[in-house]
Amino acid sequence: MNASPRSTVFSGAQPSGQLTLGNYLGAMRTWVQMQDDYDCIFCVVDLHALTVRQDPAQLRAHIFELTALYLACGIDPARSTIFLQSHVPAHAELAWLLATFTQMGELERMTQFKDKSQQHKHNINAGLFTYPILMAADILLYHTHRVPVGEDQKQHLELARDIAIRFNGLYGPVFRVPEPLIARDGVARVKDLQNPTKKMSKSAESELARVMLLDAPEAILKKFKKAVTDALGVIRYDEEGQPGVANLLNIWCAATGQSREQALAHFSHHQYGKLKVETAEAVNAILQPIRTRFQELNADREMLQTVLASGAEQARRRADAVMEKVLDALGLPVARSRF
Ligand code: TYM
């Protein structure tokens, strides 16, 4: 992390159910650490979640749960801006403007669109297709320097950069071109416990495939015990040949703070059972305090509303200042009543 202090950081997660261990290790844990050195903005991206059909009551509950989880993980509203995407209309507004600077071919190349349109064959809506433009708007609205995300978001970030560069090329330096900050090796793509060549995802069919942040200790132990490994019976780090074992080693390292060499020294003469159980214990140790804090925070809806209201006010002010520049650059007269 070598950007100058107080550079702006922006990131977000979708309120589409609980977060997985992959979300936490690949993104949120980094966000918490970045608060000391950066001007951080963390968004609950509710508009993005609408690209798949949602039950309104459940979505509302998930939005507050995700806000409580941000806080439980250590995002501090006194130091960072936490807000709900739909509370700042400039996100949707800028997304429209940026859509006119994005080519169909660019969107067609997005692997997440290809994957999601396979998963949701009955509802391949235009929002699913234009989703990366909304994500570009999220980032560009805050003159963001760094965007800490897991590897699966890399392609979207490259598109956000391309859109910013294209716009600036036509109208002058309106946007800052953001830099991705992909999680470090090993946790950039935490794998599915049942199919360790795929990323761990909220939408995997089997519950055993993913560890959720609020899973009970017994459930975590069960999921790791049932994690798919291989028939070789040796603990080595070989992502290609032994992806299940490599994933467990990566998770153990991330949860204990130990290096890969230390992990191999610790496990190499042992059986998979020990690796599985100790990984479950290490994960449980980092999730236990989050679960406890979450219960309290999630019960206090009034406090969560206050945090989101104050975050929205800060975000709106910053986003509107950038919107004014964008509208002006495009030749759209800025409404006097607006700013
Ligand atoms: P979302 O909600 O799918 O995931 C939130 C964050 O978690 C990371 N992540 C992972 N990291 C490592 N291993 C995994 N298995 C894993 N699964 C998920 C994601 O990379 C992400 O950083 N489009 C985004 C949300 C978004 C956003 C933004 C992010 C909307 N606008 C602007 C950054 C900036 C998404 O759906 O993340």
Describe the overall structure.
With 339 residues, the protein is mainly α. It folds into 2 domains: 8-186 and 301-330, HUPs (Rossmann fold), CATH 3.40.50; 207-296, Tyrosyl-Transfer RNA Synthetase. It is 54% helix and 7% strand. The strands form 2 sheets. The chain has a 3-stranded parallel β-sheet with strand order 1-2-3. The protein has a two-stranded parallel sheet with strand order 4-5. Helix 1 (21-34) links the parallel strand 1 and strand 2 (39-44). Helix 7 (126-140) packs across helix 8 (154-171) and helix 9 packs antiparallel against helix 12. The two termini are 35 Å apart. The site of tryptophanyl-5'AMP has 25 residues, from strand 1, helix 1, helix 7 and strand 4.
Secondary structure elements and pairings:
Blueprint: E1 8-13, H1 21-34, E2 39-44, H2 46-49, H3 56-73, E3 81-84, H4 90-99, H5 104-108, H6 111-119, H7 126-140, E4 146-149, H8 154-171, E5 179-182, H9 217-225, H10 243-256, H11 260-267, H12 272-299, H13 301-330
Parallel strand pairs: 1-2, 2-3, 4-5
Helix pairs in contact: 3-12, 4-7, 7-8, 9-12, 10-11, 10-12
The structure holds tryptophanyl-5'AMP (TYM).
The site of tryptophanyl-5'AMP has 25 residues, from β1, α1, α7 and β4.
Q: State the major sheet.
A: 3 strands, parallel
What's the number of structural domains?
Answer: 2
What is the top-level CATH class of the largest domain? Alpha Beta
Count of helical regions:
13
Structural class: mainly alpha
Ligands in the model, by name, code or SMILES, are: tryptophanyl-5'AMP
The radius of gyration over CA amounts to: 21 Å
- Proportion of β residues? 5-15%
CATH superfamily of the largest domain: HUPs
Side-by-side strand order of the widest sheet:
1-2-3
What's the β-strand tally?
A: 5
How far is it from the N-terminal to the C-terminal residue, by CA?
A: 35 Å
CATH architecture of the largest domain: 3-Layer(aba) Sandwich
- SSE order in H/E notation? EHEHHEHHHHEHEHHHHH
Low-confidence spans: none
Rounded mean pLDDT score: 95
Shape: globular
For this structure, the CATH topology of the largest domain is Rossmann fold
Helix content: 40-55%
